């Protein structure tokens, strides 16, 4: 699991579950962190997006949107990282720690997941795709402004809080840190303007699952952005 498959398969490994993923993808890393936070092991298949493997006939049948991650548990197929994480928490880790059981606490976490899917991730794609796929060697000013606005939102959301979702890290923190740590490569977070966000990101970076399941892919993304900038 996580960092290059270095984590040993545990006895409670879910051999009937498969995750197709690319480590540089924030949504894939969110699912990988979720699995590591739950101490769950499943079959992982690395997909080379640069070679178009996510558009292969096999994966297109599973996910007509041709995006990653793709998750399969027996006959169930899911292709949204938030839906996958919620399913894993409810089906295989029903402790209430990562996803509260009570309707109110559950809704607060789902609200964070919607913030990630509706605000953060679209701004990541808008900023990153021109650099990754369109020979652009900088983040456009409007995209910088949009990302800074999201940082400001998160700074306000962290007032009086150590974690976004409660008294400890939850699925909301995990999904958001996958995206925010990647945005930080494109538009570095100013610690003077966003001290609470900076502190939260540092705390999340010290979580074991961040180290095992986010750090490697984040480094791969950083190197890719650096290499493209040098070429262009």
From TrEMBL:
Pfam families: GST_N (PF02798). InterPro entries: Glutathione-S-Trfase_C-like (IPR010987), Glutathione-S-Trfase_C_sf (IPR036282), Glutathione_S-Trfase (IPR040079), Glutathione_S-Trfase_N (IPR004045), Thioredoxin-like_sf (IPR036249). GO terms for molecular function: glutathione transferase activity. One of its GO terms (biological process) is glutathione metabolic process. Residues 102-228 form the GST C-terminal domain. It comes from the Eukaryota. Residues 15-96 form the GST N-terminal domain. PANTHER family: GLUTATHIONE S TRANSFERASE D10, ISOFORM A-RELATED (PTHR43969). Homodimer. This is Glutathione transferase. It comes from Diatraea saccharalis.
